[in-house]
Design goal:
about 475 residues; Uridine Diphospho-n-acetylenolpyruvylglucosamine Reductase, domain 2; Alpha-Beta Plaits; 4 domains; about 20% strand; binds flavin-adenine dinucleotide
Length: about 475
């Protein structure tokens, strides 16, 4: 695909469409040239723009479509698959200034927001009204709701509430042509036409730009308790995941896994101590409910099942302070890792829950055979594990040669185990070549056909998911 560069004349035309000045100073261009994907190269855009409303987004898309200029939408830049990296330079469109809460509709338990709102703000606002927003990625304090929708972000409460897409009821979308369309609304049921909302969710900014979002909120459970269960080793902890749920007959809100190295990294990063900090692995299990008694009954059953499955002890965090401390440690693992090992590759392979032990075993073998360090943590309850390969002291050339081999093997084993190569971070740029190698032609053709129907000139976030 051949794109046009933004010459002086086009730049002036673009500026006339926007209230905030178009930025092209080196510092801004560099800041918007990458996301949080540690191992991807930055790509410098030609300009960065900050639209303030749907009209500006739409005008820019009409301009870009008619002049064949690539546009890369961007939320908060916390992505872990390179989705916001501008592969063909062009325009980076940051939605960060479209960050207003448009309506809080307590009666319908719905909230309507702009895409640049930080997810944690939605969680806090809902909480103040006795409601809950069920999306909870570990990056909730830094990622935007627009980015969460584009990636169908998962997180810590997927077992009970499902991923981001489960909460999305209405979307306003600017198409690559600049046309604006409204999908869904506040209806709980809607089968009028195709389910385009859930085609947009997870489309990684390749089909349209989300400019308004209506999310469903739920009643806030009155009580919640978290358990911290240390295990002697990773295998026992991982094998306990399905056992403890079937044993207790309870599906918890969260069931998170951290291996010994992740715990150590988080504790040293936060300067805190964990009980059994030398344990091989820990599980965090959270339950919520409307009465103290039902929550008590559930966590006792889960704690007993966990110990039967090999847990060393079950620590109960039943007040806000201790629960927050646990979650802070869990949520800081990625940051802790980045501070000690800036070059690493964090994966988010996803398999049916009962196959996690096999996945971890294979990942350990893959790392061992190639002298790579590996740590693992993640959303074990939904089969989504962050297997992370670490460069450590390896030479750059060995790391660059070894990593793709390790990923190829990891992805093919994941597929054999009935899983997929990304459970929540997306394909983006990082996994594009691997998706092509494990997906059948019929499906790749469908993805390409859908992209073409939305974006015949291939100007919106080109270079992502599949090659055209
Ligand atoms: C410390 C840390 C912890 C994380 N934990 C989790 C986790 O628990 N679960 C999880 O799922 N992810 C997690 N992530 C990954 C990341 O936070 C999510 O993918 C998040 O959804 C990205 O949101 P963002 O606003 O930063 O989007 P960006 O990174 O800016 O963009 C991501 C993608 O969305 C597109 N996009 C952004 N806004 C729009 C829009 N308005 N319309 C259309 N497309 C758009 C971009 O083009 C890009 O393809 C974590 C990341 C970090 C750094």
């Amino acid at each position: 695909m051949k794109y046009n560069p933004l010459n002086m004349e086009l730049l002036e035309e673009l500026q006339l469409l926007l209230e905030i000045p178009v930025k092209y100073d080196q510092e801004t261009l560099e800041r918007y040239s990458k996301d949080e994907t540690a191992e991807l190269q930055a790509v410098i855009p030609e300009v960065v723009i900050f639209p303030l409303d749907t009209k500006e987004v739409s005008e820019v898309m009409k301009f870009a479509n008619s002049h064949l200029i690539p546009v890369t939408p961007r939320g908060a830049g916390t992505g872990l698959s390179g989705g916001a990296v501008p592969v063909f330079h062009g325009i980076v469109m940051s939605l960060e200034k479209m960050n207003r809460i448009l309506e809080f509709d307590a009666g319908n338990m719905m909230i309507t927001v702009e895409p640049g709102v930080i997810t944690g703000e939605i969680q806090k606002l809902a909480d103040r009204h006795g409601l809950v927003y069920g999306g909870d990625p570990c990056s909730s304090e830094s990622s935007s709701i627009g980015g969460n929708i584009a990636e169908n972000a998962g997180g810590n409460k997927v077992m009970k509430y499902g991923p981001t897409g489960y909460h999305v009821y209405g979307l306003e979308v600017v198409l690559p042509s600049g046309e604006v369309t409204s999908l869904g609304g506040k209806m709980i049921k809607d089968v009028s036409g195709l389910d385009l909302i859930h085609l947009m969710v997870g489309s990684e900014g390749t089909l349209g730009i989300v400019t308004k979002i209506t999310l469903r909120l739920l009643p806030k459970p009155k009580y919640s308790v978290a358990l911290l269960v240390p295990f002697p080793d990773i295998d026992t902890a991982i094998a306990a995941v399905p056992k403890l749920m079937t044993g207790a007959g309870v599906v918890p809100t969260s069931l998170e896994f951290m291996d010994g190295s992740s715990i150590k990294a988080a504790c040293s990063f936060l300067n805190i101590e964990f009980p059994y900090s030398d344990a091989g692995a820990h599980l965090i299990i959270e339950v919520e409910g409307s009465s103290k008694d039902s929550v008590f009954e559930d966590y006792v059953k889960l704690g007993e099942s966990a110990i039967e499955a090999g847990g060393l002890e079950a620590f109960v965090a039943d007040n806000r302070n201790t629960r927050e401390k646990l979650w802070k440690a869990r949520k800081s693992i990625a940051e802790a890792l980045a501070s000690v090992s800036p070059v690493h590759c964090m994966e988010d392979v996803s398999v049916p829950m009962a196959n996690i032990p096999e996945l971890i075993k294979t990942s350990e073998e893959i790392a061992l055979n190639r002298n790579l360090e590996m740590i693992a943590f993640g959303h074990a309850g939904d089969g989504n594990v962050h297997v992370t390969f670490i460069k450590g002291d390896l030479d750059d050339s060995i790391w660059n040669e070894t990593l793709p081999q390790a990923l190829n093997e990891l992805y093919s084993k994941t597929t054999e185990l009935g899983g997929c190569i990304s459970g929540e971070h997306g394909i983006g740029l990082k996994r594009k070549k691997y998706l092509a190698s494990i997906t059948d032609k019929a499906q790749l053709d469908l993805i390409r056909g859908i992209k073409k129907a939305f974006d015949p000139n291939y100007i919106l976030n080109p270079g992502k998911i599949v090659d055209i």
